[in-house]
Amino acid sequence: MEGKERLYYGLGKLAFAVAKADGKIDPEERRKLHDLVMQDAACKNSGLDISEIIFHILKKYGADKPESLYDQAMKEFKTAQNFIEDDMRSDFPALLEKIARAFHPITEEENEIIQRFRKDLEQL
Question: Rounded to two decimals, what is the model's pTM?
């Protein structure tokens, strides 16, 4: 994977962690997660197949806990930190918030992941 792909792979893991923070992800949530990521990310980065990244994550890391997914995601961000663009610092957390709101009001667990990511991303 190249730099930007790593960032979106990390974002996919974070998106899945947020969606999973309140428990199991059902098929409807998977479809909604896919739709949100495609709507927000793909149009800005047509060279990256965001949906494939997300579904690879859903398949491979489905049993992982949100904390583990978060740690894995941040490793990707640290590895590719020189590819982080200014708009990503606001767009990525905003996407996570949309995912959290899509299924129900934002839970405390989801908010913790989003706020932690916002802070960690600013430090990179």
Answer: 0.83
